[in-house]
Known about the structure:
Mean pLDDT: 81
Largest sheet: none
Amino acid sequence: MSRDDIRMTHKHKILSDHLTGAAECCVATSKNHSMAIEATFANLKLAFGKVHTKEKLLKKLAKLPFHQSDTEKMRQDMVTIANISMLLLEKGVSDTDDRITKVVTSKLPKSLRDSVLDDWKEKDPMTIKDIIAKASSDIFILELEEEFQELASTSAMSIPNSSSIYSASAQTSTGRKNINRANCPKKEENTVDSDDSEQNNH
């Protein structure tokens, strides 16, 4: 909408064409297309804009859930916390305000919370940025531990235990003995010709 080669009439038409549904009523019309565009954006803000007051943001942060086991969802929750915290800082809330730091820390799983508290003992007060950085680092470590456990489990399943190796070896040895016996030629029995037998009788 800021290109110089597009006239105001065209800009207004493009804006009007793209605003549909509930936003369609926000399109302002005027012979002065520049004023109509400004009025349209003002109407959109009035109809759909959300005012992020400090109180609303603090309530939103307090109600925000935090997943206790899924590390991927933990990271997503941490991003949401970081975004809300940034807005609160822009509203003038201190980065060490208990309404941010302690509220966020209380939401963390016990292992992450204990880790943050250990740092808190060494560095008081902790800023919200410190807490987010520490918790994010611990989440990364949790993901590494999960990956190592999966690798160890896979390796254990692929390596047979000693008893199964012994059993397989014994079966193979027995099988070879049976094969060797089957392939060995049988010894011919000593037979006596009937003529020789008769001579001996005489």
